[in-house]
Amino acid sequence: MFAKKLRELREREKLKQEELAKILSVSPSTIGMYEQGRRQPDHEKLKQIADYFKVPIDYLLGRTDNPTLYSNSVPQGTGKSKQPGHYDLEGSKNLPLVEVKKIPIYSLTPKNREEFFAPDNIIGWEPVPADTLANFAVRIEDDSMSGSRINKGDRVIIREQNTFSDGQAVLAVIPDGSFVIRKAKKTNDGIILYPENKNYQPEHFSEDEIEIIGIVVQVNFDYI
């Protein structure tokens, strides 16, 4: 679907592949592979494409047929997305509006390690305040961090970086290829990843055995 949408948008703008390649700072062959479905852009490039053509990322991925961009705002304290100027919660007219952005939610179980940031691994979109310093979210699939109030089904907001402070919760890839949320602590000979549930055991790895993808900056959950 992405391949078809990209070609349609490029042709709508009367751009040659070479011209679009220059705009996106990629090679013409990359554009060709995008349009043939032989290659997928990473999230940052996908966002750049959406921004250039002024369409939602969901439109590029075929999740909506509506190419129109719209801006959401959230009245502080309500937790509900609102279009600017629309208020239907009692008292919300007196609350300041906060601009929001939507970040991709990735599955913690991609087909393989290299496809974590692939568009096909996006399972949804999470609204966060526009000034949130975060790149993406993941949906929790177990109770290994329940002691930190990170429960199954919660969306953990991640800032992509490979450094952390002792005690911070991180997203890491461990030797078996699994993506896990754990608290991390450096030791003289490596890193300890420890859960917040007595039914799970801490694990010690050398620094070259694991990859730190990012740090947890926020946890979003649904009220029941």
Supply database-style keywords:
224 residues; alpha+beta; 434 Repressor (Amino-terminal Domain); Umud Fragment, subunit A; 2 domains; ten-stranded mixed sheet; 5 helices
Outline the fold blueprint:
Elements: H1 2-12, H2 17-24, H3 28-36, H4 43-53, H5 57-60, E1 73-75, E2 97-106, E3 122-129, E4 136-139, E5 155-160, E6 169-173, E7 179-187, E8 190-194, E9 203-205, E10 211-220
Parallel strand pairs: 2-4
Antiparallel strand pairs: 1-2, 2-3, 4-5, 5-10, 6-7, 6-10, 7-8, 8-9
Explain the overall architecture:
By secondary structure, the chain is α+β, with helices and mostly antiparallel strands. It folds into two domains: 1-69, 434 Repressor (Amino-terminal Domain); 90-99 and 135-220, Umud Fragment, subunit A (Ribbon), CATH 2.10.109.10. Helix content is 19%, strand content 28%. It contains five helices and ten strands. The chain has helices spanning 2-12, 17-24, 28-36, 43-53, 57-60; strands spanning 73-75, 97-106, 122-129, 136-139, 155-160, 169-173, 179-187, 190-194, 203-205, 211-220. Strands 1, 2, 3, 4, 5, 6, 7, 8, 9 and 10 form a ten-stranded mixed β-sheet that branches.
